[in-house]
User: What shape does this take?
Amino acid sequence: MHSDLHLSQVKITPRHLERKAVVYIRQSSLKQVREHLDSQLTQRALVGRAQSLGWHPERIDVLDGDLGQSAAGAQTRDDFKALAAEVALGHVGIVFGWQVSRLARNNAEWYQLLDLAALFGTLIGDTDGVYDPQLYNDRLLLGLKGTMSEAELYMMRQRLNAGRLSKVQRGEYVQRLPLLRQANACRLRKLLLHVS
Assistant: This one.
């Protein structure tokens, strides 16, 4: 970690420190948000990392509005959009995410963020280090991290689908109704019982 701090300090310039550090916090589902509070606390600890690298507390923003939203699909992630806009306006010196996969799980969004960061001189930081997308080796490593993140998502989907298919074949699969439909089904049952 000591060598990481030294290398990070070489990449971080006064221009970066004049701008904001943004810590982007995300978990993929509401269940994770409810049941995995340690993950949020761990991600929030990146505020301390930003401070240790020289950012003043008043220059550190935490974006956690995308908690409970997957980074895989086309659904709206307002904080991610706000992050990209702030980078494009030149307001951000560094973006922190616990892992690259916290930022985006698809290469289209990931490379868009990397392009903006390179264009406007914004660094990317995670638990492994601080990266400058303008530098070839850093850009290459960030690209690999993004590709691995997208591949990981594909592999997770394959495992989940294989498990679901296996349960179907054994006759053990149960598809639960979404909560709203369950509530409506209960109301309908009560109504039918009341009518008869």
